[in-house]
């Protein structure tokens, strides 16, 4: 009897051991580890986005981007501005809720100019030029700025890069693992079409090159992602002057987007970069809705030494933009940057108003660059915004802000692919110098770590 029990126990132990061993083997096969795979997951989280160079600028007025459209006649010529002639304007149905109170205007008492030399002549109409009251700041050279941007993408990267590298570094991937790769891309906002394309290319490349090590897998991933960010459009910002009929013409840059994406901040940061490179800049505060917007822009202008043109009470934003460009031309400025009010892309009246701003400006100068500012933290919605804005004002470049605060940098891939508009700049913080050029390789490196 006791020998029977002995054999029963022996058989049970053998069966148990066999089950454990086969379980372990199956688990290992599902996640084949290449040598060093662990090391990839344990990579330190330091480093980040480091653009190889500074923000590049191109002269406006050239025809190598989209062909210049024939200017559309303004519905309300500037001479007949709605706030003075009582005519309804395109933006008059803009009685939609705003995220802040409409600015109640008061005349700003201008300080006596302290600097020597003649004061700029006031611009006629509804707009007043603002003279600086803050001391002009010294602006660091571009190299110093870029260095400080290190590490700003760490959140995006830890989500996107580490999970992808962890998966790909695990070797021969089974269908579940590929599904996980797909999920990682989707969660990072790359969108279904881009994700499918990237996964197909990854599968092809990994098997074609018989990838063996995590380092090789990383290289393939880097190449596939970087290639997916390539574009035919130029990434230089058209903010340098050009000549029209032998006369110097400032580059005109229009900055637009939905509320709170960072338009004013980006306009100010861009002015800083331009001024630091020796350009003279006029800022147009065509955001006549938000009480603080014009003040905010004025502060930026004062700090960098750029003139600011802002509207009087209930000024038509198109009139402010028009006068800013007029002032830029009169002063022989190099660039005029026009900050517009935030508007929901779903509000037709507001989008019409934006279209009018552009048309009115184009009565006297071509708009060389239309920058759409997208907040990276809004994810997929950014794409819908980009589509509508592009239809109304023919966007020529994207600025993706707040990349420092999101794990969803992947919207970059979608916006570029689906709109064919290059991402030109990225905002990596609230600081005055937290603006960097968009470079696909550097961006992917920062994501992957
Ligand atoms: N973290 C971070 N914050 C940013 C960035 N860019 C802008 N911001 C912040 O976003 C907030 C909104 O920025 P604004 O420049 O006022 O946005 P806006 O689009 O002009 O706003 P509206 O005129 O109301 O539409 C501010 O607190 C900025 O400091 C960025 O790249 N990173």
From TrEMBL:
Residue span of region Disordered: 40-128
Catalytic activity: GTP + H2O = GDP + phosphate + H(+)
Any one Gene Ontology molecular-function term assigned to this protein's record: GTPase activity
Keywords of the record: Cell membrane, Cytoplasm, GTP-binding, Hydrolase, Membrane, Nucleotide-binding, Receptor, Transmembrane, Transmembrane helix
Superkingdom of the organism of origin: Bacteria
Protein's cellular compartments: Cell membrane; Cytoplasm
Membrane-spanning intervals of the chain: 6-27
Membrane topology: Peripheral membrane protein
Top EC group: hydrolase
Assigned EC number: 3.6.5.4
Classification via HAMAP family: FtsY
Protein's name according to its UniProt entry: Signal recognition particle receptor FtsY
Organism: Amycolatopsis carbonis
Gene, per the UniProt record: ftsY
């Amino acid at each position: 009897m006791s020998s029977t029990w002995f054999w029963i126990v022996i058989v049970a132990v053998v069966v148990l051991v066999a089950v454990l061993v086969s379980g372990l083997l199956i688990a290992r096969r599902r996640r084949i580890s290449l040598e060093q795979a662990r090391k990839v997951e344990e990579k330190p989280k330091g480093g980040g986005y480091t653009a190889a160079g500074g923000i590049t600028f191109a002269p406006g007025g050239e025809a190598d981007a989209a062909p210049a459209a024939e200017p559309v006649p303004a519905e309300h010529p500037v001479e007949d501005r709605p706030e003075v002639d009582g005519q309804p304007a395109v933006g008059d149905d803009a009685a939609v809720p705003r995220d802040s109170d409409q600015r109640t205007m008061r005349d700003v008492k201008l300080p006596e100019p302290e600097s020597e030399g003649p004061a700029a002549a006031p611009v006629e109409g509804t707009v007043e030029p603002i003279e600086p009251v803050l001391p002009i700041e010294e602006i660091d050279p571009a190299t110093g700025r870029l260095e400080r941007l290190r590490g700003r993408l760490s959140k995006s990267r830890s989500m996107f890069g580490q999970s992808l590298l962890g998966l790909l570094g695990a070797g021969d991937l089974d269908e579940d693992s590929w599904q996980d790769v797909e999920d990682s891309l989707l969660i990072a906002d790359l969108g279904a079409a881009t994700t499918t394309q990237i996964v197909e290319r990854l599968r092809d490349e990994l098997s074609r090159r018989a990838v063996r090590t995590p380092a090789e897998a990383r290289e393939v991933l880097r190449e596939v992602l970087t290639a997916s960010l390539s574009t035919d459009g130029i990434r230089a910002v058209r903010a340098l002057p050009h000549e029209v009929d032998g006369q110097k013409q400032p580059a005109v840059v229009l900055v637009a987007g939905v509320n709170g994406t960072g338009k004013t901040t980006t306009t100010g940061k861009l002015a800083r970069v331009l001024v630091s490179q020796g350009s003279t800049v006029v800022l147009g505060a065509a955001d006549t809705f938000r009480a603080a917007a014009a003040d905010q822009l004025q502060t930026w202008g004062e700090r960098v030494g750029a003139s600011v043109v802002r509207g009087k009470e209930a000024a038509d934003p198109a009139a402010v933009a028009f006068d800013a460009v007029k002032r830029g031309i009169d002063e022989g400025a190099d660039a005029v940057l026009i900050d517009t009010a935030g508007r929901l892309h779903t509000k037709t009246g507001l989008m019409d108003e934006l279209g009018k701003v552009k048309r009115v400006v184009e009565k006297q100068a071509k708009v060389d660059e239309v920058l759409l500012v997208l907040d990276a933290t809004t994810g997929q919605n950014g794409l819908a915004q980009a589509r509508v804005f592009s239809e109304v004002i023919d966007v020529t470049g994207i600025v993706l802000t707040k990349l420092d605060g999101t794990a969803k940098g992947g919207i970059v891939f979608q916006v570029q692919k689906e709109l064919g508009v290059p991402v030109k700049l990225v905002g990596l913080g609230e600081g005055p110098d937290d603006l960097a050029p968009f470079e696909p390789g550097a961006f992917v490196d920062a994501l992957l770590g």
